[in-house]
Amino acid sequence: MFDAESVVNSYCKAWFDPEPEERRRLLFASFEQEGTYIEPTVQISGAEALLYHIDQVLEGRPGFWLERTTLVDVHHDWPRFGWVQRGGNGFRGADA
Fold first, then answer.
1. Helices (DSSP H) in the chain: which residue ranges?
2. pTM over the 0.85 mark
3. CATH code of the domain covering residue 39
């Protein structure tokens, strides 16, 4: 069993930390090297590719941050949580 709360917190912080090396550290501590990231507009394989995607998102949305809005629920070893995007280009909500 893993500490889902810590993993999700690190993952969320990886989406907006201003320091590239800290983003890398946070993401690699919370996302499997060969993991898959899927959302409606993109599917990414691997932590390096996801890190590149995060860098591109941050470049296009200065002031952006991701905020977790729910507790972490683990179902069949998959952490699930609600989140919202804040700052940058305004407010947009979503669920993971």
1. 4-14, 20-30, 47-60
2. no
3. 3.10.450.50
